[in-house]
Every structure is written in structure tokens, then in C-alpha cells.
Amino acid sequence: MFKTYEKYIIRNFINKFITISIIFLSLVIILSILEEISFFKNLEVNFLFPYFLTLLSAPITLFEMFPFIFLLATQFLFFDLFKKEELNLLKSNGMSNLKIIKILFFSSLLMGMLTVIIYYNAASKLKFFYTDIKNKFSNDNKYLAVVTDSGLWLKDEIKEDTFIVKATNIKDNYLINVIIYKFDKNFNLVRTIQSQKINIGKKIWLAEKSIVTEKNITDQIINFEIETNFDQEKINNLFSNVSTLNILELFDLKKDYENLGYSSDEILIHLLKLFSTPFFYGVLTVMSSIIMFNFKKDKSLFFHIILGILMSVIIYYINFMFSSLGNNGKIPIVISIFLPIVFISIFAIIGLIRVNEK
How far apart are CA 270 and CA 132, in angstroms? Predict the structure, then answer.
């Protein structure tokens, strides 16, 4: 059972976390609603529709801000403890600096687990609904790309013609074992194109050797060009929004990518980030606590806000840099995720030694 003063610290920490989360969520909604209103300004939709879409997308954006919210919540907790001189009262009840940090660390760890298991899965589903609804109003709605057990499927529209593309594999700039069906505006089959390999580096695809069937006549054509709206970059972008998938769906998609021969590095990085999230929250909380113990207690609230923002920016860019290196294959994926956490943990351990001496 928790003692009264332990409950007091945990309750205040959670209150600070919720308060700051509400503030950040409000900012996200305000900024996002302007973008949604701009997107729908020339479309005939209910005036509440942009607000509805904003509410669907805001939770996943807030999830990405949670590391900095934990950091700020810790700072504001200690600011109140210093301001009300409650820290000395806690110490008189047998609580050391390390014990306070320990309580906050395990609280962050537990809250992190709940945010990943419950909050993230719910927020990703809302993001999926947001993407699905908004795509219906986008120019890209006529394009479709999915990965199934049978391979990669693409749907494209050029003028009044519809193209259905199936490939069993994708390697570098090439689709492997490709069948393309071309339909007219009435969805009557016009042409079938089969090729072992098609270069998709540009939007004008190049089938090096292809078998083309049209009006029951089959020809073998060398270097057959196919006009599309897709190239390798566009296909990559269509599969890059992993935040719309919950954890189980991410595992399924990773398996499909590997069967297709498509790189699953981005999904693996996202999964590793999710699994390391609770510990990352805990380490940030410890780091923030150490910094607060090492600053003078008479610092203003404005100073702590600026300090929190500065720390958040530094940590964000460190994570972004290592994630980019992992995505590009410059460093192993596991290192790209865990090395920043190791660095922060080392600083935290060094700081804990100093805090314990006070």
C-alpha cells in the first residue's frame, strides 16, 4: 500500500500531466482546425465537418507530444513543491531525493504502458478513420495501394481509363511478376499487360519485356511504356503513415511487407519506439527531476517553461536524427532507437549520484 505522502506525489504528478496534456491538446486542435478549414473551403460540406476531422486526428498528434509532456509535468510538479516549501516537509517524513525520483519513475513507467496499450491503439484507430474520410475529398482518392498475402495491388486512373496492377514483389525501382489490367470508363477490359519486371523509377513505367493482349491479339513488346500516376516515391509515401495502425495491425503489415520483399524498416522502427516508450517516459522524468534538484529553487515559472521547451527541442532532434539514420540504413535499427535512450540514461545516472549527495 502507498503511504499518504507517496499518494500525494503521484496524484499531483498525474494532475500536472493531465493539465498540460489538455493545454497541448487545445493547441493542437486550434492549429489543426485552421488547416482543415483551409482544405474544405472550396468544398460543400457541413461547417462542423472540419471540426469533427480535427477531433479525429488530434489524439495521435498528442501521443507524439507525450515525452515532452512528461518532462514538463515533472518540472511543474517540483516547481510547486519548491514554491509551497513542501519538499522539506516530505523529507522530514523520511523521503529522500532518490525516493521521490523513484516514485515518479515508476509512475511514468506505468502511465507509459497504459498510453501505449490503451491510448495509442484508440488514437491510431481514430487517425485511420480521419485518413479514410479525408481521402474521399482528396485528389488522391482515385489512387489505391494495398499489400495482401498475394502481393502488391495498385489502382490508378488515367483520363477515363482505370488500371489495376498486381505485383508479387518489389525490389529497388522494380515491380516483379506484374500483371496490369486496363479498363475503359464502363469498366470493360481493354488490355492486359504481363511482365517479369517493370521499372517504376518514374511515372512513365518501362516494361523491359512484356506480353500485351488487346482485342484477343497477343504481342511481345520490348521496352513498353505505361503512363501512370505512380512512381517509387509515391508508392513509398502511400505506405508511410504507420500511425494509422494499431500494434497488431503493424505486426500484420510487417509480415506482408516481408513476404512482398518490401522494406519493413519503418514499421520495425515504429514498433521499437512503441515498446521503448514507457522506459523513455521514465528516463525523461528522472532527467527532468535531476535538473530541477540542481537549479536554484527561486527560479521563475517562465524560466522553467523555457527550460522545458529547450530540453524538448534538443531531445526531439536527437531522436529524429537517429531515426533518420536508422531509416536510411546508415546505422542498425535497434541502435537508432535505443542509443538516444542510453545517452539520456547515462546522464540521468550521473545526475542521480549528485542528487543523492544533496
Answer: 21
Q: By the 8 A CB rule, do 338 and 273 touch? A: no
189-199 and 204-214 strand pairing: antiparallel
Residue 252 is predicted with a pLDDT of: 81
pTM: 0.76
- Please, what is the angle between helix 301-327 and helix 49-83, to 10°? 120
E strand map for the chain:
144-148, 151-158, 161-171, 174-183, 189-199, 204-214, 217-227
**Rounded Cα gap, residues 66 and 185, in angstroms:** 48
* DSSP codes joined into one string, 14-76: HHHHHHHHHHHHHHHHHHHHHHHHHHHTTS---TTHHHHHHHHHHHHHHHHHHHHHHHHHHHH
321-328 LR contacts (CB < 8 Å, sep 24+): 323/269, 323/273, 326/265, 326/269, 327/265, 327/266, 327/269
Element (H, E) at 176: strand 174-183
CA 216/CA 25 separation, integer angstroms = 60
- The answer to whether 202 and 231 have CB atoms below 8 angstroms apart is yes
Residue tagged 487545445 (cell numbers): 26
Number of neighbours of residue 121 by Cβ within 10 angstroms: 16
Q: For residues 238 and 146, is the Cβ–Cβ distance under 8 A?
A: no
Q: Which of 120, 100, 160 minimizes the C-alpha distance to 243?
A: 120
| Residue position matching grid coordinates 497504459 | 114
Q: Residue 164 corresponds to which amino acid?
A: I
Number of other residues whose CB lies within 10 A of the CB of residue 201: 13
Report in angstroms the alpha-carbon separations of 206 from 144, 154, 181, 344.
20, 16, 16, 49
Would you say 250 and 271 are in contact if contact means Cβ atoms under 8 Å apart?
yes
Q: What are phi and psi of 45, to 5 degrees?
A: -135, 160
* pLDDT tens-place string over residues 183-223: 888 888 888 988 888 888 888 888 888 888 888 888 888 88
Helix, strand or coil, per DSSP, at residue 147: strand
